[in-house]
Known about the structure:
By secondary structure, this protein is mainly α. The chain is 66% helix and 0% strand. The two termini are 37 Å apart.
Amino acid sequence: xxxxxxxxxxxxxxxxxxxxxxxxxxxxxxxxxxxxxxxxxxxxxxxxxxxxxxxxxxxxxxxxxxxxxxxxxxxxxxxxxxxxxxxxxxxxxxxxxxxxxxxxxxxxxxxxxxxxxxxxxxxxxxxxxxxxxxxxxxxxxxxxxxxxxxxxxxxxxxxxxxxxxxxxxxxxxxxxxxxxxxxxxxxxxxxxxxxxxxxxxxxxxxxxxxxxxxxxxxxxxxxxxxxxxxxxxxxxxxxxxxxxxxxxxxxxxxxxxxxxxxxxxxxxxxxxxxxxxxxxxxxxxxxxxxxxxxxxxxxxxxxxxxxxxxxxxxxxxxxxxxxxxxxxxxxxxxxxxxxxxxxxxxxxxxxxxxxxxxxxxxxxxxxxxxxxxxxxxxxxxxxxxxxxxxxxxxxxxxxxxxxxxxxxxxxxxxxxxxxxxxxxxxxxxxxxxxxxxxxxxxxxxxxxxxx
Length: 451
């Protein structure tokens, strides 16, 4: 199945309980496969920094800055004492890197104090870079942030070039400017910054470079991957799987995702898990799928947690475990994956692995439906149709089935047909009736045509 480029059968049985069980599907086949990844342009100011940096300063400062870029908060704590000593000896660059370390530690106030009292953000590229991060993250003063990044970029802090490019590409604090974004990404990439190369690839692959050029996009993703940045590997895999003209084989797609996962990109782990779960270009292997989803979930992928929960819910590669599935769906939901919320709602509706709670199920379905999860809208429709914990309301059910059906949920389309056959559409408003009957006619229900 071709993935979208840039990140779910009703049986018509008379017995209500059977219909409900048929309609409430935690994840239909198309939904499970349809959770697709898109190449991502990265905002460096909020994401962990990549293994690439060039600083012209003292050896301690250079080493500490590079270490923090690679190791993040752990490295920041490790180098704090050495940077304090150097900063106390009036090494302004050490003070700038110390401020950067404090940003990683979450002490933004101390970082800002150092930048404004111990450094010269006009003349010190490192200080200008850290100050740009402050303005972007603490006050969303994007226009001020981009000016600081531009000064740092002029001083060969390549991450700053990429950050400036991201702000221009996304129109943060200013009118969007793809030409400027491309220029900053290119400068960043030429200096060896993998974020800049990744984002440059994204611009080409998404027609932001004037024309759509997936071959050039793939070239930059490959370059980024080979430099050791996992997101570049994952994005390369997505392009290879989407575009036949790139000539990517199933093995190359698999290797790209696995390499992305190896380099701690959670989306690469999720994509690799998808390949093994569905036997997409590889031999189906639920054990490997579970391993990759587990790693994705551990690395912070909310949909990785949801996919893992689905395996336990269905007993794929392991014994069915509704409690573990509920925990994982909850973790995915808490992380922002609305399909995880839908699936957790289904467990609450069924009382599997968690207490039966129709009100909680309704709330979870509602939130997921509002986030355009078709299955959740269908499930809300079922609750309204059958008065499950709420008043029975055929008109509301029909409206929800229509929403889900228009999002290509075959299940919802079948449910809408069943409502029509049962004569339950009389309460529709004229406007809703027009839309519902038009959809039913398009689905081949001739009796609805002209109604």
